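Fig. S4 source data, part A: sequence.
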Amino acid sequence: MIGFVFLGLLVLVVWVLGIAAWRWTLNREIDWRGVAFAAGFVALAFWLRDLTGMG
């Protein structure tokens, strides 16, 4: 039962942080090309690690 309480609190904290992050991004001018490049670079690194088995 105490696990459900901790899980509920964790979900609540993640929800509040997600809303705060969303509001923060709406008020900022973000370079989405840079964000997309960084995400693509990380995804490519993981894919190449999976493909080659190195890293």
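Fig. S4 source data, part B ends here. The chain has one domain: 2-52.
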